[in-house]
């Protein structure tokens, strides 16, 4: 038995949800470029869960359900009030999502209907939890969700207490479409491993949030913004990047395990970053990002991934840096839950083997003789 480090190249599941073939990303057979330009996030969530685009009536019903389910159990809001104000936002989200299960009477109902309903509940409640956490830590009360609007609109509304600008809604909606699913990425794999023991959907999503938190996965978008802020000015870019590359340190937002010729999602975020920069009158973060890309791609051949231009997009939308990865989760929960439903539909315990490389033939030595 020989291990493949990081399971690189290992095909670990069959799935009909999303595919990456020759660098092209599709959700249920629809090219991501087509969906990014034309679909709303709610249409995409429906597509991921049901395998087909919704009719107008089905979409209206989903939006109504999302509004109905978006109210978070008061006990969970009370718990969030007890979290340390400076706690890590992904740790807060992970803890709150785990708590949501305690107040859902069908949390352990494994029927197909209940699991699909819980997928919609999780999709509705993650944005509400993130917005509530963001307000509570500032000493503000959470804002009750709005009915009849999409996830992007409702999230910005619950975050600020004001109806957002349509340009901001469309930009966030597109970012949510682009992040919704991505084949067997680390967090999706974590969720499938968890539920393959026939554990519940909340446990699967909680595992996924834990996996998304790391800077090699979803945490990279926040790390990109930290880097842009640390660099600060155009003049500092070249020495900063050069130093990092010379020290063999990673530049956040570049490289990908699967895409070696570029992440198809990045160009949409780059375009959005440029447009939002113009609209807000601050193109600095965008221009700095372009310069970093020129240097990193020029010297290392590494291309930006989905996280790189997300950082300047979310900053232009006025979103605090440490909410970037929670926003990733707000979108990816659609994909996680679609994969969890798929795993349940044809389940087998996921239990690979390890190549043992430790000592052998050891003999027990009594504690007094060690
Ligand atoms: N900056 C500098 N060098 C890099 C980078 C980077 N961002 N990414 C890869 N490399 C280099 C490595 O140092 C390594 O070089 P070497 O062969 O000389 O040692 C080589 O490219 C291969 O890199 P690995 O880390 O082995 O590639 P792997 O497939 O394991 O990792 C990953 C992919 C984790 C995305 C990596 O590119 C990385 O750490 N990027 C920065 C973090 C990031 O942006 N993560 C978000 C990914 S997208 C997502 O999850 C949503």
Q: Can you describe what's shown?
A:
The chain is mainly α and 370 residues long. It folds into two domains: 13-214 and 323-345, Citrate Synthase, domain 1, CATH 1.10.580; 220-316, Cytochrome P450-Terp, domain 2 (Cytochrome p450-Terp, domain 2). It contains 16 helices and three strands. The protein has helices at 32-38, 41-50, 56-69, 74-82, 89-100, 112-136, 151-160, 166-179, 186-195, 201-212, 220-231, 234-246, 266-280, 284-300, 306-316, 324-345, and strands spanning 18-21, 24-27, 30-31. It has a three-stranded antiparallel sheet with strand order 1-2-3. A hairpin with a 2-residue loop joins strand 1 (18-21) and strand 2 (24-27). Helix 2 (41-50) runs parallel beside helix 16, helix 3 (56-69) packs across helix 6 and helix 9 (186-195) crosses helix 16 (324-345). Acetyl coenzyme *A (ACO) binds at residues 6, 216-218, 220, 250-257, 300, 302, 305-307.
CATH superfamily of the largest domain: Citrate Synthase, domain 1
- What is the approximate shape? globular
Assembly state: single chain
Structural class: mainly alpha
Sequence stretches where pLDDT stays below 50 over 5 or more residues: none
- What's the CATH architecture of the largest domain? Orthogonal Bundle
Terminal CA distance: 33 Å
């Amino acid at each position: 038995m020989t291990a493949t480090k990081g399971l690189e190249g290992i095909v670990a599941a069959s799935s009909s949800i999303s595919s990456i073939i020759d660098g092209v990303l599709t959700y249920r057979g629809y090219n991501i470029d087509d969906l990014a330009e034309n679909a709303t996030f709610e249409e995409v969530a429906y597509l991921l869960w049901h395998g087909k685009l919704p009719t107008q009536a089905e979409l209206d019903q989903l939006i109504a359900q999302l509004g109905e389910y978006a109210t978070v159990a008061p006990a969970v809001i009370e718990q969030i009030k007890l979290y340390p104000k400076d706690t890590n936002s992904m740790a807060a989200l992970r803890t709150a999502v785990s708590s949501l299960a305690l107040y859902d009477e069908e949390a352990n109902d494994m029927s197909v209907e209940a699991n699909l309903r819980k997928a919609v509940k999780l999709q509705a409640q993650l944005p509400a939890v993130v917005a509530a956490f963001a307000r509570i830590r500032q000493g503000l009360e959470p804002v009750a969700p709005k009915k009849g609007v999409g996830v992007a609109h409702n999230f910005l509304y619950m975050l600020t207490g004001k109806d957002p600008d349509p340009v901001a809604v469309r930009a966030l909606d597109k970012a949510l479409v682009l992040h919704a699913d991505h084949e067997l990425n680390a967090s999706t794999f974590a969720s499938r491993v968890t539920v393959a023991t026939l554990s519940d959907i909340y446990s699967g999503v909680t595992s996924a949030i834990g996996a998304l938190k790391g800077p090699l996965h979803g945490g990279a978008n926040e790390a990109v913004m930290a880097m842009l802020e640390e660099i600060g000015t155009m003049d500092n870019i070249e020495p900063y990047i050069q130093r990092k590359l010379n020290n063999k340190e990673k530049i956040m937002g570049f490289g990908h395990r699967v895409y070696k010729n570029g992440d198809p999602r990045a160009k949409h975020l780059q375009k959005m970053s440029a447009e939002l920069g113009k609209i807000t009158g601050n193109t600095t973060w965008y221009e700095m990002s372009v310069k970093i890309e020129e240097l990193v791609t020029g010297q290392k051949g590494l291309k930006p991934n989905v996280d790189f231009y997300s950082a300047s997009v979310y900053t232009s939308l006025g979103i605090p840096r440490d909410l970037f990865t929670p926003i990733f989760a707000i979108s990816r929960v659609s994909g996680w839950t679609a994969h969890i439903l798929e795993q349940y539909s044809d389940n087998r315990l996921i239990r690979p083997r390890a190549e043992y490389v430790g000592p052998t033939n050891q003999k027990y030595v009594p504690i007094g003789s060690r």
